[in-house]
Amino acid sequence: MHGEREVVVLRLGHRPGRDDRMTTHIGLTARALGADRVLFVGDANQSARTVRDITDRFGGPFSAEVIEAYRPLIRDWEGSVVHLTMYGERVEDVEGEIRTAHAEEPLLIVVGSEKVPFEVYEHADWNVGVTNQPHSEVAALAVFLDRLFEGRELDREWEDADREVIPKAVGKRVVEAESGPPDDAPGDATPDSTDE
Amino acid sequence: MHGEREVVVLRLGHRPGRDDRMTTHIGLTARALGADRVLFVGDANQSARTVRDITDRFGGPFSAEVIEAYRPLIRDWEGSVVHLTMYGERVEDVEGEIRTAHAEEPLLIVVGSEKVPFEVYEHADWNVGVTNQPHSEVAALAVFLDRLFEGRELDREWEDADREVIPKAVGKRVVEAESGPPDDAPGDATPDSTDE
């Protein structure tokens, strides 16, 4: 986020087709909850396009990139590396240390899938479990980011948005960002989650 | 969770095949982060089976059920209803009120998908946005539960588990719950996330 050290989310183990929605949701969650960039490994162009499209419409800065090889990135990362895994240390035990580290240097958050090579565990400064239960890499990333930023990500301002959702007790209100008339639409005009 | 009012997650809009993984991840996130039950609407038997299988192995109490009709459930719910939607009020503004309500009565959390009927917005006591950005219903549910329980869900104890993951700085350690020898396996023996 603006004024803070960079936070980058690296999504490992994307399987084209099968993982498209999960990978897209990881990218959108990274964007919505305060990360600066998401990196997908391999053939994840469809997910990257969807995340960029949302950024074009709802604002940034945020970037989604597809890379070929993640090992050099992790090895050469100039900052701290966190790997989210149900086998790791309890998030509540290590989040303070990680926040302290992030105050000083950029943070790479590695989000795996089924099989993460052991070298990722070894290279990580922290292997972190958001619970030691099997659930969802999207959920783990979301809780981790909310705790990392201690809720500051919810106040993030968005630049260069075409549209903006105005919080509403009942119904939906979407306005053109900065200018233009409100479009007050209680109905089901716009999807709540993105679906590719 | 034990000693608290019941928290039930209702997942609307499941499309068989297409949504199986998202629906499963919602169920597993509900379980891991402190809810007591998840209800899926329609043909979501595969997701319910996966969630029950994880509960059998990693412990409970937690139940996953498939229901036919959600309208009577929302209408007749004896407690508060929260609907998670990117169009809703900001979670940071309403979470205190919701915690106060949950101290007194059960809480139903409705998690939608693409199109949620307007009557759900009207019946909800709170429509809540975990950010007003498009991202992921799994991420929204995760952050909401972590904030609802203020982290208490991370200390939850599990009953009747076959196995237990022991937090570890590097690698993986899974033991038989309560008895049996440890199975210390630094490698990729067990999936980090569940995949059906």
From TrEMBL, chains A, B:
Single GO MF descriptor: tRNA (cytidine(56)-2'-O)-methyltransferase activity
Compositional bias (Low complexity): 179-196
Keywords carried by this UniProt record: Cytoplasm, Methyltransferase, S-adenosyl-L-methionine, Transferase, tRNA processing
Annotated stretches, region: Disordered: 170-196
GO biological process, one term: tRNA nucleoside ribose methylation
Subcellular location: Cytoplasm
Record GO cellular component, one term: cytoplasm
Gene3D superfamilies: 3.40.1280.10
Top-rank lineage group of the source organism: Archaea
Stored SUPFAM superfamilies: alpha/beta knot (SSF75217)
Enzymatic reactions: cytidine(56) in tRNA + S-adenosyl-L-methionine = 2'-O-methylcytidine(56) in tRNA + S-adenosyl-L-homocysteine + H(+)
Family: Belongs to the aTrm56 family.
Function, in words: Specifically catalyzes the AdoMet-dependent 2'-O-ribose methylation of cytidine at position 56 in tRNAs.
Subunit structure: Homodimer.
Name the UniProt record assigns to this protein: tRNA (cytidine(56)-2'-O)-methyltransferase
Upper lineage: Archaea, Methanobacteriati, Methanobacteriota, Stenosarchaea group, Halobacteria
